[in-house]
Amino acid sequence: MLTTFPRLLLKHATERGSAPAMREKEYGIWQTHSWADMAALVEQVACGLHQAGLQRGEHMIIVGANRPRLYATMLAAQSIGAIPVPLYQDAVAAECVFPINNAEVRFALVEDQEQVDKMLEVREKCPQLQHVYFDDPRGLRNYAEDGLGSLDELIAAGKVFAGQHPAFFREAVEQVQPTDVAAMFFTSGTTGNPKGVVHTHGTLIDRGQAGAEFDKLTSSEEVLAYLPPAWVGQNIFSYAQWLVCGYVVNCPESAATVTIDLKEIGPTYYFAPPRVFEGLLTSVMIRMDDAGALKRKMFHYFMGVAQRVGPARMDGKSIGFGNALLYALGNLMVYGPLRNNLGMSRVRVAYTAGEAIGPDLFSFYRSIGINIKQLYGSTETAVFVCLQPDNEARADTVGVPCRGVEIKVADNGEILVKSPGLLKEYYKNPAATAEVLTADGWYHTSDAGFLDAQGHLKIIDRVKDVGRIKGGANDGAMFAPKYVENKLKFFPHIKEVVAYGDQREKVCVMINIDFDAVGNWAERRNLPYAGYTDLAQKPEVYQLIKECVEKVNADLSVDALLAGSQVSRFLVLHKELDADDGELTRTNKVRRGFIAEKYQPLVDALYGGKTEQYIETVVKFEDGRSGSVSATLKISDAKTFAPVKAAA
What we know:
The protein is α/β, with parallel strands linked by helices. Helix content is 39%, strand content 21%. The protein contains 21 helices and 28 strands. It has a 5-stranded parallel sheet with strand order 4-3-5-6-7, sandwiched between helices. Strands 12-13-14-15-16 form a 5-stranded mixed sheet. A 5-stranded mixed sheet has the order 24-25-26-28-27, sandwiched between helices. Among the domains are: 5-271, Rossmann fold; 466-637, ANL, C-terminal domain (GMP Synthetase, Chain A, domain 3). Helix 12 crosses helix 14.
């Protein structure tokens, strides 16, 4: 059914006004907002924005964490035909300039003092930014800049206007059509300026409904909204599907309390990128390593049982009476308490996407009774392209096309998608729009992959990143950097990887260790260290990482397509890759080209046969200051394996 987000809000408020719509944790206490409360708040904000001069078709930026009043402001802007544009709250001020100017933004709602300071900093470069409203007034009492005001003041003005014009809000909502633009999301901009992805109410709602139908979501679901609202995935799960299904969205108190809040809420529908699942598992294993011998023995025994029969049990297959009994005992002693400790005791559906998830990690969660699945999509497709059915979840695929989606594979291996959820356009960028959208409605994903015999989609890498080894024993072999990077990141001791090899005779990688995991590993071995840089260069750490690299090489050697992508040399970086330093996007994707330029001496040393290389790097601190980190990095060779010929 074609509709709009404000109409969905009013539908819930009319039919089930007293039911909880959102919860927000403040000062350690959960505050509940009903659907009727949200509708009243949205009306007041919409009237306030209208009175302040926000026009139909105009953009308004929203910057902050997940907060009910920020979501209400998005709905309010949509109610009067304006277009909310969420930006990443951890972006530095300079990163906000292009989106604000590109979208000609006059109005902004930001969460707190930190975000207000950013907006005031960019005003010189964005003179049209006239109105900046803030939600949290702490620290802002003595700010007296023109156009700066609190959301409370806007709401108060809107309340007065709504009282004088009681029909205004409903009439405004009725004017908004499903084909109208609902939101714009800026891509992460791995190369050049980010692009504004334009979506209508119809595209976003259709994909929200398709996902809800696929997993039989209802109004009784509980969701924790903790990822950036500027990321389309968070927007789909906590906004589009929230309004489609009418379930409860819970906003954590802060990033630091997410793990605690997860346990308190016990979500039934959960989404996290692989690195969050990796982090949760790493913390479990660290605690388990510190546990007593008896507890460790029991844990490892029952985890062995879970890994042997758990995934089959999760897929609805018979595991036999004896195994069922053992699993039930393990559930009582280990799996149940573990799910509870992870905050996932009530999870019915858990999704991961954005990057490939390691088979071991995937199997671990499914083996202890958590229905983790993978999905495939992007900002341009409003997320839902492929989803995994409950009994067909596999680590090496991203599922089957969901309702309304068609997939075909181009001659060069690129995946093309046709879907009701496709972007309308890239804002003010017809050339880029024409590059990705064909005249007959196919979207170029830029991903290389194929559909397997069961109709599941497999992703290899980005089309532009798939290269060839040139020279040496593997001359002409396929090189898929992301595939290699992800296989290495499956190890808990490795946090980030950057792989090079296209048009070169061998593959070399730069690695970030996981400081918590490797730090705990070092402490258990009484290995002293003074910080990240010191720990990263320990010979013992290099040996640990070398073992991980060689295990990946052994795995790659049996893959006929990618045996030539084995890693010949590696180094461990002296600092963690950081979005503030331009090395990662705001969605934590590696900017491989930028890193190659920034660390050119390291790339040259890897390929030049050196055993060490001095490097000094400028870094940005959280308070905005700059500094530098320097070190002499060791470079290590790794064992590679002869390709294993498949049996005839």
